[in-house]
Amino acid sequence: MRRRAAAALLAGAVPTATQAHSFGTPYILPVPLWMYGYGCAATLFVTFALLAWFRHEPVTPVSEQTPESWRIAPALLWLLRAMAMALLALTIWAGLAGVDDPNRNIAMTLFWVVFLLGLAWFTLLAGDVYSYTNPWASAVDLLERAGINLSAKRLPYPERLGCWPALLLYFALIYLELFTAATPELLAQALLVYTGITLAGVGLFGKRVWFDKGDLFAVYFRLFGILAPIAWRRDEDGRWTVRLRSPLRGALDETPGEIGMVLVVLFMLSSTAFDSIHETALWVGLYWTNTLELLLPLWDGDLGRAQTALMEGYRIYRWLGLLVFPLGYVALYWASLAIGRKLAPTVPPAGEAVRLFCNALLPIAIAYNFAHYFAFAVAQSASLPALLADPLGTSIARPTPVPALPMGVIWHLQVGAILLGHVASVWLAHLMALRATPEGRGAVISQLPLLVLMVAYTIFGLWILSLPLG
């Protein structure tokens, strides 16, 4: 009993499902969590039933339409690209020359908040603006203007490699975020390493191939842009054009060509879920409570020695979690499509369906990204004017803290975002099923396992967000 009590003290109290975990502040939900889950699940089932009843015709591919498009002025393009390169240079310079305090150095806010979050959410409205403001692509263009040819392929890009370089870099980015002492200097060094990898990839395989498959940020923002009502395209003459389209339409027209892109989408979803759970009292307690109770006798009840000895195992436990979560999401996604094939043999086999229905998961992944990070983004972005005035953080004054949003507002925005994302995913999956099989009844039946999976994602996401931090 004493060992169990000691383990509990180190692990933190096991939470109840009625507290929201944002910033570790307990928040008692106005109604029990199961009622939120029930309401969201019922909404998804009703949405699916209405679509099955009223929608029986597949959506016409965009290639069969003639949407009007407009060209972007080259001067505006170069102005935006120059601003993007300047912000990248500022981030690296501030990280190397500024103070180590992440709250006073502008590098951390520029990269993690303005770039990875703000630009991603802006892309949902304005389309893939990163495709034409990519600072690394702009640097490559400048090198080519200086006479260094980086467009030609020096090595053929292996077809099997696909988007795996972007996926591995994505994994490294999440590792940097979760498992390192994220200082401005480390961030700047990571960006310099990423610049070297980009130049090497472009030099070996050519800029078009690398920025299409190997550049993590190009792939990341492209996924957000797929759902946008604005589509950008680069013509053969190098000019950029823009056209309007229905929201979410890109998810129907841009099916991933290979499994690597599917894994990027699933990792986007699973890594955010892991980020949400890995510091909760539940996740921390799963390791410390059990291992300390089991192994404490080996150290004669010395709690300090036991904790020190088990710390390295805890690091491995966290790393394994980052690996296991994506594998679990991949297995569940594959299994739901395989079961759908069993129920309706007219639909494509699971090996092909994982690509055909992959974009249906994008609204879920992006909604959960927003639900998890928006409160942090709001709090950090409010200090941006002060950081711009002193980007290196050399002044003694610290940015004025911004009052936190009320927990009730945060929780209900999270619930709304998750529910909206899952409704959009149910709609997309239904339309994709109608395209994949000529038999309408089979399309509906085949989607039942995927619908159950989306309901499970919804309830799991809400449950994670309800857990207090450890």
Short characterization:
This protein is mainly α and 470 residues long.
Helix content: 55-70%
Spans of at least 5 consecutive residues whose pLDDT stays below 50 are 1-24
Q: What structural category do the secondary elements indicate?
A: mainly alpha
> What's the count of strands?
3
Total domains:
2
Helix-strand topology string? HHEHHHHHHHHEEHHHHHHHHHH
* Mass-distribution shape: globular
Radius of gyration: 24 Å
- Largest beta sheet: strand ordering: 1-3-2
Average pLDDT figure: 83
**Strand-residue proportion:** under 5%
Largest sheet at a glance?
Answer: 3 strands, antiparallel
Question: Helix tally?
Answer: 20
The N- to C-terminal Cα distance equals 22 Å
Structural write-up:
The protein is mainly alpha-helical and 470 residues long. The chain folds into two domains: 1-67 and 276-470, no CATH class; 68-244, no CATH class. Helices cover 68% and strands 3% of the residues. The chain has 20 helices and three strands. The chain has helices at 2-11, 33-54, 74-97, 106-126, 130-133, 135-145, 164-179, 184-205, 207-214, 216-226, 249-253, 259-277, 281-295, 303-343, 350-356, 362-381, 384-389, 407-436, 440-446, 448-466; strands at residues 69-71, 230-234, 240-244. Strands 1-3-2 form a three-stranded antiparallel beta sheet, with no helix packed on it. Strand 2 and strand 3 (240-244) form a beta hairpin. Helix 7 runs parallel beside helix 12 (259-277) and helix 12 packs across helix 16. The chain is globular and about 65 Å long. It starts with a helix and ends with a helix. The model is unreliable at 1-24 (pLDDT under 50).
